[in-house]
Amino acid sequence: MKALILAGGLGTRLRPLTYRMPKPLIPLLGRPLVDHIIDPLPAEVDTVVLAVSYMKDALDAYFSSHDVGRKVVLVNEEAPLGTGGAVKNVAHYINDTFIAFNGDVVCSVDLNDMLHHHREHGGIGTMALWRVDDPSAFGVVGRDSRGRITSFQEKPAKEEAISNSINAGVYIFEKELLDHIPAGVVSLERDVFPKILNKGLHGYEFKGHWIDCGTRENILVAQRTLLDLGGGRISPEMIKEDDAMLTGVNMVQRSHLRGCRIGPHVYIEDDVLISKGAEVSESMVLRGALIEEGAKVQGSIIGPDCVVARGQAVKDQIVART
Ligand code: GTP
User: Fold this and answer.
1) How far is the CA of 142 from the centre of ligand 1 (A)?
2) Per-residue model confidence as pLDDT tens digits over 78-110
3) Residue with CA at minimum distance from ligand 1 atom 14
C-alpha cells in the first residue's frame, strides 16, 4: 500500500523559520515533523510518496541520507498545485487504496483501525475527524446517522457550525478519487470533497491528540504533548555548570547550559549555549543558537545559529534567519 504525504506547502505562517527549512523538516523532539507521520503508518504501507514543491532539495537531501524504514519517493510540483492538484500529480504511483496525510499533522489516529473502518463501510474514501469545542477556524463536517459525510462548512462562525467535528487532514481513499480531481491547481477541501459526497465519504472519529503544526503555537503544543506523553530526555553529552536548573519535562541534546533555568517543555538542540541568568520555557532552541546572559525566552522558536541578546525578552515569537 502507498501512503501519500502532502509536503509541498510554503509554510508562510511559520516564517521566518520556513525561509530556510521546509515545514516537514522542522525538528519535533529531535526528529523531523514528517518522521512523526511516517513512523506510525501501518505495516502494509511499503512506499511513502511525498508530494513536494517548496524546498524540495532539502527534503531530497534528508531522505537520501536517512533510512526511515520504507521506500520514499519524492514527486515534485514545479509550482504548488494545491492539496488536490498534488494528489492528481502522483496518480502514476497510485494503483489501489491509499492513505493520504497533510504533512503537518501530528496525531494519535490508529490507521489500522481506520483502514478496517474504511473497508467495512466502503465508498470512495474515509476522512479522520477530530472534535473541537470551537470549530470556527476549521473545515467542519456534517454527517448522517450512519456516519456518512453529507456536508462541509469552511470556517463557520461558532454559533453557525453544523457540528463540532473537523477534517483532521488524514484520509483513506480509493484510487477512483483521482477521476474526480481536475487538472491544475485544485484544493481537495474546497473543490473536490463537496463533489464526491454521493460516492460515499465516511467520517472516522478518533481520540487522543491531534495537532495541526501550521503555526508556532501549535508546534509548541505538539512538542509539549509529545514530551508529556513520552517523557523527556537529557543527552549524557549535555554540559551543565554554574547550577543550571532544569524543571519539568524537557529534551536537551548535546549543548551547554551555564547557570540558567530551563523548562518546562523545552527542546534544546546540539551546539546551543544558554548563558548565565537566562530563562527558557515552553520553547524550541535549534542547533547552534546562543542565548546570552539574562535573556528570557518563552513560547518561542529560536532558529538555527540565532542569537538572543543579553537581557532580551522573547515571548511568543519565531526568531530565525531570513
Ligand atoms: P501556510 O502557508 O502557513 O498556510 O502553510 P502551507 O503552505 O503548508 O499550507 P497548509 O498548512 O494549508 O497545508 C496543509 C498541508 O498540505 C501541508 O502539509 C502542506 O505542505 C500541504 N500542501 C499545501 N499546499 C500544497 C501544495 O500546493 N502542494 C503540495 N504538495 N502540498 C501542499
Assistant:
1) 24
2) 988 999 999 999 999 999 999 999 999 999 999
3) 102
For the Cβ of 86 lying below 6 angstroms from any atom of ligand 1, the answer is yes
Q: How confident is the model at residue 231 (pLDDT cuts 50, 70, 90)?
A: confident
Q: Where are the alpha helices (DSSP H) in 90-204?
A: 111-121
Q: Is the C-beta atom of 139 inside 6 A of ligand 1?
A: no
CATH of domain 233-319: 2.160.10.10
Residue-level pLDDT at 43: 93
- Are 234 and 250 in contact, with CB atoms under 8 Å apart? yes
Reported as a single tens digit per residue, the pLDDT across 120-132 is: 999 999 999 999 9
Average pLDDT, the chain: 96
Beta strand pairing call for 290-291 and 307-308: parallel
d(CA 318, CA 313): 13
Which residue puts its alpha carbon closest to atom 7 of ligand 1?
A: 9
Give distance in angstroms: CA of 80 to centre of ligand 1.
8
CATH 3.90.550.10 correct for 2-216: yes
The model carries a pTM of 0.94
**Local structure of 263: helix, strand or coil:** coil
- Our answer to whether residue 207 is catalytic in this structure is no
Q: Kindly list the domain boundaries of the chain, sorted by start residue.
A: 2-216, 233-319
Q: Which of 71, 155, 195, 315 is catalytic?
A: 155
Grade residue 7 by pLDDT with cuts at 50, 70 and 90: very high
CA angle 67, 68, 72 (to 5 degrees): 90
Please check the confidence at residue 184 and state whether its pLDDT lies above 90. yes
CA dihedral 150, 153, 159, 164 (to 10 degrees): 60
CB distance 11 to ligand 1 below 6 Å: yes
Which residue type sits at 61?
A
Q: Is 20 in the pocket of ligand 1 (CB under 6 A)?
A: no
